[in-house]
Amino acid sequence: MNDRELRLTMICDDDRPSHDERAPGDGHTRRQFLQRASCAVGALAALGLPAEVMALPISEVSGESSPASDAVQRYPIPSTDSVKIDRKNEVILVRYQGRVYAFGLWCPHQNTALNWVAGDHQFQCPKHHSKYQPTGQFISGRATRNMDRYGITKDGTSAVVDLDMIWQSDKDAAQWQAASIPA
Question: What architecture is the 58-182 domain classified under in CATH?
Answer without folding.
Answer: 3-layer Sandwich (2.102)
